[in-house]
Amino acid sequence: MDLVPALEEPLKQPLKSVLGPATAKVMAEHLGLHTVGDLLHHYPRRYEERGQLTHLADLPMDEHVTVVAQVADARLHSFASAKAPRGKGQRLEVTITDGSGRLQLVFFGNGVHKPHKELLPGTRAMFAGKVSVFNRRLQLAHPAYELLRGDGEETVETWAGALIPIYPATAKLESWKIGKAIQTVLPAAQEALDPLPPALREGRGLLPLPEALLKIHRPHTKADIAGARARLKWDEAFVLQVALARRRHADAQLPAVPRTPKPDGILTAFDDRLPFTLTEGQQKVSKEIFDDLATEHPMHRLLQGEVGSGKTLVALRAMLAVVDAGGQAAMLAPTEVLAQQHHRSITEMMGELAEGGMLGGAEHATKVVLLTGSMGAAARRQALLDLVTGEAGVVIGTHALIEDRIQFHDLGLVVVDEQHRFGVEQRDALRGKGKQPPHLLVMTATPIPRTVAMTVFGDLETSVLDQLPAGRSPIASHVVPAADKPHFLARAWERVREEVANGHQAYVVCPRIGDDADEAADPRKARQKSAEDEADKRPPLAVLDMADQLSRGPLQGLKVEVLHGRMPPDDKDAVMRRFAAGETDVLIATTVIEVGVNVPNATVMVIMDADRFGVSQLHQLRGRVGRGSAPGLCLLVTEMPEAAAARQRLNAVASTLDGFELSRIDLEQRREGDVLGQAQSGARTSLRVLAVIEDEEVIAEAREEATAVVAADPELERLPGLRTALDALLDEEREQYLEKG
Predict the structure, then answer these.
(1) 3-class SS at 567?
(2) In the sheet that 367-371 helps form, which strands lie side by side, from edge to edge?
């Protein structure tokens, strides 16, 4: 992070490598460590105490682990095999213990001689390998090990102090080898340039950076570790928040056209025709948005809310306010299905107000246009014409809206309805569409804990809708353990039939489409699937198979249709229209129905293989039922055993309807990198010691400090160390993460 010449030195060089060339190569390829600075910022995952042993009882399956333990016994067995037919094959079984549990180590062939001599009962060592199961017992096959004699010069020197750092390692490079490499470069820590302004560091009583690096890698006491971690957490939180504060500061310097609605224009006419009153939350958030729209700088606001809290209505009122002020508003949806849905629900909500320029259109009406990539040429031409003349006040579409050819008359507001970030490149493309940069409202369907919002969406101001509108019905959720209690699944299908008999409709959701193109389209899926299948013994359930089974079996006689992402857009739209009109009893779908789908008459949802979905995804899906006056029911079907982590996750979803609470649970169960969009790309997360949920206070304080620093010195001219740290954080990969998210 804080790279200066000594720390910028590559680990691998043609002439003189800091480390051995082989070690440097493995570090670059498997751990993403290229320079001395990278290596110094590769912190220990945890520490073992010389006098204590690892908890063998809690080892995770299929993970690469490092344990410190004592040899209880070692036995050499002979056996016959294809390679050694005369019973000359050799297998060494070593049992290690830590008091809490025992673990079997196994060595074969020529690999038995060295451990047979060294791993004698009573010997203590560090062992590293992948945990597997053989004959229902945990074992490490051919683990690497390092004896802990505590007498040899080198061992005492290398493992100074009573605390042994255990580093995130790979099968190719054990923790203790990484530790030795770090000892080699540790003197360079003295030259680390401190990114924290001195006043901030001293005011908060934080260690200087060189001392923190020294103490995290070579602690003598637990207090050393705590002090070092506290300091390094501040670095990560502060540098990231400075990057975001600079983005906010730069955005605030841009000019924008203030958009104030006319007193009795289309917004007033729209409010008058609403059959209900806005919730307090909707009124409060609308006011925040209207205040922003009235300023001379572009609004950058994140609108997040509970599933079904009425975000679309709030966004539509903002769009109509801009139309009143003479501008145009564009809404971007992530998929065509969603764009079509938004177009349908917005034109329904607006009624004759959406029929501008048509016979029967109201006095203040405007035109609401849909623009997607798969439209016919004539319809597309007309839509483009309506945009450029200003005839269309509201346009809804996919990212096709920001193509070069598309011109607006006067674009005033962009609403992005996304599960994902909307990248800076796209924002710039849209800004170019307006005479001045348009205002921006980003809606997220997944409730995000406050700290994550501050970390991931830190360049946006945040509004939260946490009240459900009146008339929304409660949703009961239950886990259906199909393997333990098959009669529960039979009962689930009976419940579906009962709801349909009462005039309602149902969704059945499956993880997969089920045509062979599933795997053909993405060969990686086929590879992942086979690994999963080993664990789960069957592929995830598929929409097409389920539709077939249910139509012939438990749902025979009901009108069943399927919906998935690979259908032609017109077919998808036709299926959704029939379902919305009540012509279909049961819709069997993939997660294309996850957000934005609004069919108040649908009261029950059965999610097959629910353990294959994430917590927030299940919460999203569940939000599709209970949208009318009848209560909703969501059944989470799984074959996972009671004790499995996946079952705990489903129990959590069934136990609360609070999306913010669920998003916290979700985060605690997943790696931090996922949150920051890094894990998907396989890249390292920029957070090494900062935990987004646990370190809420640090993040909030760092945001305040960062905002103050940037306000006083936007270019950071007086803080060269901070500038260097920012450049390192915002190298190309992370720049893209911050921009595209």
Answers:
(1) coil
(2) 367-371, 392-397, 328-332, 411-418, 439-444, 300-305, 461-465
Q: Using CA atoms, how far apart are residues 392 and 387, in angstroms rounded to an integer?
A: 5
Instruction: Fill in the DSSP letter of residue 611.
Output: G
Q: What type of residue is 542? A: A
Give the list of residues 6+ apart from residue 520 with CB closer than 8 angstroms, or none: none
DSSP 8-state code for residue 191: G
Q: Show the tokens assigned to 716.
A: 């950071």
**What is the C-alpha to C-alpha distance for residues 697 and 273, in angstroms, rounded to an integer?**
45
Rounded Cα–Cα distance for residues 397 and 373 (Å)? 9
The radius of gyration of the chain from alpha carbons, rounded to an integer in Å, stands at 30
What is the rounded CA–CA span in Å between residue 689 and residue 240?
A: 13
Buried/exposed 390-399: b ≥16 CB within 10 Å, e otherwise: bbbbbbbbbb
* E strand map for 482-532: 505-509
How far apart, in whole angstroms, are the C-alpha atoms of residue 383 and residue 374?
A: 13
Residue 707, burial from CB neighbour count under 10 angstroms (0-12, 13-18, 19+): middle
Burial class of residue 134 in the structure, from the number of CB atoms within 10 Å of its CB (0-12 exposed, 13-18 middle, 19+ buried): exposed
Strands 328-332 and 392-397: parallel
Please tell me the distance from the alpha carbon of residue 72 to that of residue 257, in angstroms, as a whole number.
76
**CA nearest neighbour of 612 among 621, 603, 599:** 621
pLDDT (tens digit per residue) in 429-452 = 766 777 788 999 988 877 777 777
Structure tokens at 710: 């940037």
Mean pLDDT of the chain, nearest integer:
80
pLDDT of residue 363: 72
| Residue 146: both structure tokens together | 């390092």
Please state, in angstroms and rounded to a whole number, the distance separating the CA atoms of residues 573 and 580.
10
Determine the Cα angle at 196 with ends 195 and 198, to 5°: 125
Please compute, for residue 417, the number of CA atoms within 13 A of its CA located in the half-sphere on the CB side. 28
Give 184-196 pLDDT, tens digit per residue. 888 888 888 888 9
Name every residue whose Cβ is closer than 8 Å to that of residue 433 and which is 6 or more positions away in sequence: 402, 406, 407, 408, 411
Task: Give which of 265, 369, 249, 337 is closest to 298, Cα–Cα.
Answer: 249
Rounded to an integer, what distance in angstroms lies between the CA atom of residue 432 and that of residue 309?
Answer: 32
CA distances from 664 to 446, 689, 704 (A): 11, 18, 23
Q: pTM of the prediction?
A: 0.69
Burial class (CB in 10 A: 0-12, 13-18, 19+), 216: buried
Tokens 């030259």 map to which residue? 191
What are the residue ranges of helices labelled H in 218-368? 222-253, 266-273, 280-293, 311-324, 336-350
**Beta strands 89-97 and 64-79: pairing type?**
antiparallel
Band of the pLDDT at 399, cuts 50, 70, 90? Answer: confident
